[in-house]
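Progress against Task 2.4 (sequence-to-structure conversion) is shown through the following example record, which the project officer requested during the mid-term review.
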Amino acid sequence: MSDEQTIERTPHPLIPFDLRKQSEVDGVSVEDLAAIAGIPVEPELSRNDPVSVAGKSILQEADEIAGQSRSRYYGHPFTNHQRIADIWNVIAEHYIKTPLTPRVVALMMIGLKLAREVNAKQRDNLVDIAGYVKCVDMIDEHIEKASNGV
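Structure tokens generated for the chain above:
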């Protein structure tokens, strides 16, 4: 696969159509359907475009996503990554000796995105890597404040 090619996304197997390609379903907008289902809708960005999106660098985009919009949906990165760690620790309890921490989860997500980037060069991977680096920083800051009683 060349750097120019992208992987075609397939619809969810339980949904008979791809909502990303629909503007409405049975006369109801996709945004309204998402709101009814409680699914947050973010503006569609051409995240695979190697040129900056809306004049933003990869780091600017990642800072906005990790710092504001994701926190609004999922809570502080420490809390969200602790939740992920708790789930992964149950799944992997027979395979790991030391429980995963929120910081380790964020580092593992960086590893996942690096593995994807090696396979298929995508702007989205780089934005997400930078976003997870920001999450590590926010997690470290949270731990530092908590250790200082703040």
